[in-house]
Write a structure and sequence with these properties.
This protein is α/β, with parallel strands linked by helices and 432 residues long. Helices cover 35% and strands 24% of the residues. The structure holds flavin-adenine dinucleotide. The site of flavin-adenine dinucleotide has 35 residues, from helix 1, strand 13, strand 17 and helix 12.
Length: 432
Amino acid sequence: MLKFDVAVVGGGVAGLTAAIYAARAGKQTILIEKQERLGGRAMTHKKKGAYFNLGGHALYHGDALSTFRELGLQLPGGQPSVDGYGIWKGKLSPLPMGVKSLFTTPLLSWKGKMELGAWLAKLGKLDTQLYDNMSLREWIEGNVQDPMVRNLFYSLLRTASYVVAPDLQAAGPVLQQLKHALKGVLYLDRGWGAMVDELKQKALEQGVQIVTKNKVISVEHHEGKARHVLCGDGMKIEANHIILTTPPAVAHELVPHAEETALHTWKEQAVEVTAACLDVALRRLPEPKQQFVYGLDQTVFLSNQSRAAYLSDDGAQVITLLKYQGKEKDARRDLQELEETLDLVQPGWRNELVEKQYLPNITVCHDFMHVKRQENPGPAVPEIIGLYVAGEWAAHGELLVDAATASAKRAVEHILSLESEERTPNEHRVIV
Ligand SMILES: Cc1cc2nc3c(=O)[nH]c(=O)nc-3n(C[C@H](O)[C@H](O)[C@H](O)COP(=O)(O)OP(=O)(O)OC[C@H]3O[C@@H](n4cnc5c(N)ncnc54)[C@H](O)[C@@H]3O)c2cc1C
């Protein structure tokens, strides 16, 4: 039996962040990942010289970026221009994202241009928390008049959050994410895998013990206290604190009698979000001006990430396409829609193809901020002392990877605050 202060289950962004912060606070920390490589959904695969993330990934100006900066990560990469196009009725039109395109776009009437211009000017100052308990559709239909400006908002907010559920999605958090997006996003050189490598390096520097290729099969607790983690190879790790960064359903499965704990509510209320992702590396772009496209009447998105980041060793252009999936998913139809989008934006792309990757149904998040949530998950599982959850689904208002880092830090802060609470009465006694 190994003994640690903190055991972290899962080596994605949440797990790595939690392990680094726990170790930085002086805790003997172990991280256990079931896959051979760390990174989870932030992994990058190199194919024929091109770096493919698991679908299109961009870092927003949110919690993750500030956390990584605080930890001293380099994060080389670049900020892409937002000049782009919208797809409307099968045609490309310039998207009104700047002053010039706002005046020239054929997508909007004069009234629509005035309304969108006013919104772009005031969005930065919007107090988004006012809309936390309202659905996205309620917010858009109640606040935006022009039908095409509404379409633009649906498209921008879908792209910022990956969610196609306007009646369910809470408006406040996604509007906040749009505010982050409008500050510009960061595409990372060599993909998000490079960020994972930097996180791994920081974890090792802090003395985190990292175990890969070992699946946690059970988290034992006794008399209301977490005791140890049991791994597939028989390794048993005793820990005062156990942080689960697995999906909510897996966390539920790992903990005996989870149905009597908040893990049950968190699993039941979770609404999964998926996407179909097509990534292609092209020798050259048939249409070099068309690099960034939002679907307005389709839930698709395209971005040539190579316009801002180093994503290929031989100069190929790495384009990422996404089909945001609502309830309806069909791997073949989604691929066809994505390929048709490429045909429209980069005609003749097949002649330039170096490599492609298609992920028909990948989980973007296991849960998000929606109006039917009973409670925000974690950080502590109230019924079991020493048991915590983190991960992008354990959001308290944040979205995507920002929720992964924020929830990881919340778990560690909770551990530290408990310990300082335990110390205080003793110190008090000594003084008296
Ligand atoms: C297509 C796509 C596009 C995205 N784009 C963006 C974006 O643009 N911006 C953004 O902010 N976010 C984006 N995201 C979301 C982002 O990738 C995730 O929020 C983040 O990587 C989640 O990290 P995590 O640590 O919470 O979960 P994960 O990465 O899923 O990590 C969980 C880890 O736990 C491990 N594990 C599970 N069970 C066990 C077990 N029993 N024992 C041991 N290990 C276990 C898994 O193998 C995994 O490594 C995107 C995601 C996808 C899929």
